[in-house]
Specification:
With about 70 residues, the chain is an alpha+beta fold. It has a domain of about 45 residues. About 45% of the residues lie in helices and about 10% in strands. It has 2 helices and 2 strands. The longest helix is centred in the middle third of the chain and has 17 residues. It is flat, with a radius of gyration of 14 Å. The chain starts with 5 loop residues before the first strand and ends with a helix.
Amino acid sequence: MLTAGIRFLTFLPLQLDHARTEDDKTAEFLDVWLERDYRALGYEVVRVPAMTIEERTHLILQNLQARGFL
């Protein structure tokens, strides 16, 4: 089965607000935990580095196109 995989955006410094209450240590733990579990379920995890929104969008679209999804 062809799968697009999981795109993981490298997280940026957190800005706490009403929706995001975790600190950097918790965010890093969740990041590692989620990637590990997605891989354990057999998904390909593609890391998207910190860059502008436009650059991230371009990289993701390029990646999907290379895999035949676009």
